[in-house]
Amino acid sequence: MNAQAKPVAVVTGASSGLGLDFAREAAADGYDLVLIARTTAPMESLGSELHTLYGTQTHVIGMDLAAPGAGASAADAIAKLGVDVDVLINNAGFGYNGAFAQSDPHETSRMTQLNIVTLTDLTRALLPAMLARRRGRVMLLASTAAFQPGPMMAVYCATKAYVLSFGEALAYEVRGTGVTVTTVCPGATETNFQKAASIDASSTLMKSPMMSSAEVAKSGYAAMKAGRRVIVTGIPNLIGAVMGRLLPREIVLPVAAKLLAK
User: What is the pLDDT of residues 69-89, one digit of tens each?
Assistant: First the structure.
């Protein structure tokens, strides 16, 4: 394997929103990048921008991460680049707003594939080499939705609960190895997520204050560098996450349903 001039960070879902901003954080921190998403043009544009700013070398992999087997395919594509991965930022994911019984089963399947299976498979593929080198950082992107069930976004909230549970357990497993696992839990963020999830502009969620994508990425990246196990970005979101865990479900469920209602 060729010697690397810089350490390498892999960022999934890097064509928009938080993925772009996580990539910017990593480049500013001295990493070369492997960016993976279905749409390549924004990643290529970002690569040019970051090369000008920081001298970053960027590899772009165009791939549908919601397709079956995508985690293994992404790992194979990374292996062909001949780089050691020092940081894995599992950012890719999407949601769907609406009653489960009326949801598109194809989109529900794609959501669980991307949010759970691809994230798990790619982490499994890249983690052993980090452990062997006794250095590395893994970030898993969950959500404040991980802390309580969410009627009208039942599957999405369940997938993020999986990510949080998986991330916390994995962080414990790798303690003392030189590798850390950080699960980042943003609340509502100014990205294209809400539009893609068909969340109505009149909903309570859309009227709530939102952190910018850049703010969330900065907080999440700093937590990963510090080796924190979990971070909920923003004090109001942290309060909401704690209340979601502590309050009886008889209170949490109707509140969540009202927040997410179309």
Answer: 999 999 999 999 999 999 999
Contact 257, 152 (CB under 8 A): yes
Q: Is 54 a catalytic residue?
A: no
Residue 214: closest CA among 22, 44, 33 = 22
Eight-state DSSP code of residue 101 = G
Q: Which of 96, 156, 162, 221 is catalytic?
A: 156
pTM value is: 0.88
Each residue's pLDDT tens digit, 188-236: 877 555 444 444 555 455 556 778 999 999 999 999 999 999 999 988 8
Domain range summary for the chain, segments of one domain joined by +:
8-260
* Residue-by-residue DSSP string for 111-178: HHIIIIIIHHHHHHHHHHHHHHHT-EEEEEE--GGGGS--TTSHHHHHHHHHHHHHHHHHHHHTTTTT
Which residues are within 8 A (CB) of 129 and not within 5 positions of it... i.e. 6 or more apart?
84, 85, 136
Q: In a 3-state reduction of DSSP, which class is residue 52?
A: helix
105-118: b (≥16 Cβ within 10 Å) or e: eeeeebbbbbbbbb
Class of domain 8-260: alpha beta
The Cα–Cα gap between 50 and 36 comes to 16
Give strand pairing partners of 211: 189
